[in-house]
Each structure stands twice: as structure tokens, then as C-alpha cells.
Design goal:
This protein is mainly α and 462 residues long. The chain has one domain. The chain has helices at residues 12-42, 46-82, 86-121, 126-141, 144-158, 163-185, 195-220, 231-267, 271-307, 311-347, 351-364, 368-383, 387-445. It comes from Candidatus Uhrbacteria bacterium GW2011_GWF2_39_13.
Length: 462
């Protein structure tokens, strides 16, 4: 297995930009999934749109588990790539996929058994709750096609190739876009399935990423060890992946809990408010996708440079990604301030839905630049094998900052106050992330014997 791109050599900016652009194709494909689903479901009516909006925190939470496992796998695989240990790369990749299968079974069992409790607690009731259960019953059956490709794609990215996994995701998004109207509205010989059709289209499209990722891992990148796994090796690999992956799951999960809390509070204002919030958070992914792409490059980039003992390059990478995040955030703020209302009208023509969606986009977009900086810090903590620093920051952000601010905002200014609370919490959380990461980097640099090209030994950094 040859490394597709050595991130320990050459221009920091070019390396990160190349990786981010390749990853951005995949992120925009994920955005396409959400926007296409929202567009067609919005044509069914406000109730259906509200029902799908209720599913968003839960679906994103399940996806967060897959992403967290992918982050854990990428962190340990990228270190093996950086140290040129190709046998270790194959072992870690294969054993990570086995772990994914176990996690899939847990997610599905938990999801099916808690649907009523979870969505009732989010504020869903009546016909909307019935529609939610129809959607999620199909959606949960597709979890194997979410978790396994996420781990596989992150393994490929850890080896330095971000474009191919993204192209696979793009192809899957196109399949979803074709199937959505056929299954939602019952065009031709297809049955009219409405929300169930949206879920089924997603499951079928995700199945293609499952097949493609396994094919690429085995036949193109030769990153799989097709042998009977040894229990001891499985245990050791899983322990390493979960050391990073479990905190990464929690890091991804905590924001979804926060959004679930916000959804519950917003549900008191009616289905139009929930639908408007749902439309806005999906449109928001247009801006968040590029930010995530640049942030996630720090996993492979930091991992490879940690393996090669180049902390100086990690510092330069952090600075570059932070600048890129601020530029992207400024551009997206201008776009949403001008075109946010027009974008919202594409998905639903209810004036209340559109106004709430636009209010969210116009206000929260002020924070997009610093949101990217916070995402980059979280990814860097994981790759530095300091995952619990990131999780502590997120817990503080949710309990001390986010929830109190939206409760105060709701009490004082109702919906505008909730949206303002979300925005302010992003700024305050980012300040904590930046200061904490700076302190962590300084500890690496202060290690005895550290030089720019030979930082703290890897084994002493965890």
C-alpha cells in the first residue's frame, strides 16, 4: 500500500488545500443529500417537513457515531502511514471495519427500541410522530451503509487520498436525487411512499458507497488484510481506535444533543417553527461543508506529521486552516445575508417557515468563521491523541454556555433570543478551544530535546 500523498513534506498550504478540496466534493455531496430530501419533502407540506426536521438531530447523532469511529480509525491509521508501517495500516483498517459491524448492531437495536421515547421528548406528537416513525423505521435499516463506508473513507483519507472517497459520495448523492422524486411521489411504476420513500432512496444510495468503499480499500489501495482475525490483535486495534474514536463520537454527539434541546424548545412555537429551523440547518450545511473539509484535513495532516515528528508543521497547519475558516465564514455570511430568504423559499412557501429560516441564517452565519476554527481544533486534538481535551471543551460549551444562553434567550426574546444564544455560544466555545489547543501545543514544544524538526516522541505524547 503506497501513501497517495505525503503530508510531512512540501508546502503546508498546498497540502492542506489539496486535501480539503478533495474532501469538499464529498462534503458537498452530503449537503446535496439533505437539500434534495428537504426540497422534495417540502413539496409534500409543512407537516411532512416538520416531521423530517424532528429526525435531523437523531439522524445526525447516529451519523456522528459513524464519523467518530472514522476519526478514530483515521488518527491511528495516519500515524502508521506517517511511520511507513504498511502492515500496521492493513491490520488497523481491517479491524476498524470489524468494530464498525458491532457498532451498527448496537445503533440499530437502540434506535428501533427508543423511537417513541426519543421523538416524544423532542416535542413530536400526533400525525407528525407517526410520520417520523415511518421514516426512521426505514432509515435505521440503512445504518450498515453509513458506518462501514464512513470508516473506509476515513482510512483512505488517512493514506492521503481525499478525492476518491468524495467522488464515491458524489455518485451516491446523484442516485439519491434520482430516486427521491420517484419514491416520494410515486412516479411511473414506483409506489407513492412519501417520507418512507425519502428514507428508502437514502438507504439505496448509501448502499453504493458501502460496495464502492470496500472495493477501493481491497483492490485499489490494498489496505485490507483478508485473514482470520486474531482476538488479541482485534482487542489491541479496537482499544487504539476507541481511545480516539469514543471521545470523537462524544464530540460529534454533544452538538446533536444541543440541537435536540434547541429543537425541543422551538417545538413549543409550532410545526412552522420546527420546519423553518429544519430548512435553515440544512441550508447551513452549504457553509459548514467547506469548513468541515478544511477542519478534517487536520486529522490526516496532523497524524502523519506526528508520526514523522514534525510539530512545527502542525502549528503551521493550524494557522493556515484558521485563516481559511475565517475567509469562508465571511463569504458565507455575505451570501446568506443577501440570498438567505430566496434560498428558504425554494424549500417551502409558508411565510412563517421562510421568515424563521432566514432569521436563523442571517444571524448564525456571523459565527461561521470561528465555528470552522473550533472544528479544526477538535480534529487536531484527536490527531494529537488528546481526545479528552476536546470532549471537555464540548461539555463545557454545552452545559455552561449553550443551554443556559438559549434558555435565557427564549425567556427574554423568544425565537430571536434562541437564535442569538446559539450564535453567542459558538463564539465563546471557540475562544475556549483556541486557548486550550495553544496550551497543548506549547506542552509539546516544551518537552526536553524538542527541536523544530524533532518534537516530542510520539509515545510520550499520549
Amino acid at each position: 500500500m503506497a501513501v497517495k500523498r505525503d503530508l510531512t513534506q512540501g508546502s503546508v498550504g498546498k497540502n492542506i488545500t489539496h486535501q480539503a478540496l478533495g474532501m469538499m466534493v464529498g462534503m458537498l455531496s452530503m449537503v446535496g443529500y439533505n437539500l434534495v430530501d428537504t426540497f422534495f419533502v417540502g413539496k409534500l407540506g409543512t407537516s411532512q417537513l416538520a416531521a423530517m426536521s424532528f429526525t435531523f438531530p437523531v439522524a445526525m447523532a447516529a451519523n456522528s457515531i459513524a464519523l467518530g469511529l472514522g476519526v478514530g480509525a483515521a488518527a491511528v491509521i495516519s500515524r502508521a502511514v506517517g511511520s511507513k508501517n504498511h502492515d500496521e495500516v492493513k491490520k488497523l483498517t481491517t479491524n476498524s471495519l470489524y468494530l464498525g459491524l458491532i457498532i451498527v448492531a448496537v445503533i440499530m437495536a437502540a434506535g428501533f427500541s427508543t423511537m417513541d421515547i426519543v421523538f416524544t421528548s423532542l416535542g413530536a406528537k400526533g400525525e407528525i410522530l407517526v410520520m417520523i416513525k415511518e421514516y426512521m423505521t426505514v432509515w435505521y435499516w440503512g445504518m450498515p451503509f453509513v458506518v462501514i463506508p464512513m470508516i473506509g473513507s476515513n482510512a483512505i483519507r488517512a493514506a492521503g487520498n481525499t478525492l476518491l472517497p468524495s467522488m464515491v459520495m458524489m455518485g451516491s448523492m446523484i442516485i439519491n436525487a434520482v430516486l427521491d422524486p420517484l419514491l416520494i411521489f410515486g412516479i411511473g411504476f414506483f409506489p407513492r411512499m412519501e417520507l418512507e420513500g425519502a428514507a428508502l432512496a437514502t438507504v439505496i444510495a448509501r448502499m453504493t458507497t458501502f460496495i464502492a468503499s470496500l472495493y477501493l480499500l481491497n483492490y485499489k489501495f490494498h489496505m485490507l488484510a483478508i485473514v482470520k482475525p486474531k482476538i488479541r490483535e482485534l482487542y489491541e486495534s479496537w482499544k487504539r481506535v476507541l481511545y480516539i474514536g469514543f471521545p470523537a463520537i462524544l464530540n460529534q454527539f454533544i452538538p446533536q444533543i444541543s440541537m435536540g434541546v434547541a429543537t425541543r424548545i422551538i417545538s413549543d412555537y409550532g410545526k412552522e417553527a420546527v420546519a423553518g429551523f429544519g430548512v435553515a440547518t440544512r441550508i447551513e450545511m452549504i457553509a459548514v461543508g467547506p469548513l468541515i473539509s478544511f477542519a478534517n484535513t487536520m486529522i490526516a495532516y496532523t497524524g502523519q506529521n506526528l508520526g514523522a515528528k514534525r510539530i512545527d508543521r502542525i502549528e503551521d497547519g493550524i494557522k493556515f486552516v484558521n485563516k481559511a475558516s475565517l475567509i469562508i465564514g465571511a463569504v458565507m455570511f455575505a451570501v446568506f445575508a443577501i440570498f438567505g430568504k430566496s434560498a428558504s423559499l425554494i424549500f417551502n412557501d409558508d411565510p412563517t417557515v421562510v421568515n424563521i429560516s432566514y432569521l436563523y441564517l442571517a444571524v448564525v452565519s456571523v459565527s461561521y468563521g470561528v465555528m470552522g476554527i473550533s472544528m479544526s481544533a477538535s480534529a487536531t486534538f484527536s490527531a494529537l491523541h488528546k481526545p479528552y481535551s476536546s470532549i471537555m471543551i464540548n461539555i463545557i460549551r454545552m452545559i455552561v454556555i449553550f443551554i443556559p444562553l438559549i434558555l435565557i434567550g427564549n425567556y427574554s426574546f423568544q425565537l430571536p433570543g434562541i437564535i442569538a444564544g446559539i450564535t453567542i455560544s459558538i463564539f465563546l466555545g471557540t475562544i475556549i478551544s483556541v486557548l486550550w489547543l495553544k496550551k497543548t501545543i506549547e506542552k509539546f514544544k516544551a518537552h526536553p530535546g524538542f527541536t523544530n524538526t524533532e518534537p516530542v516522541p510520539v509515545e510520550e505524547s499520549i
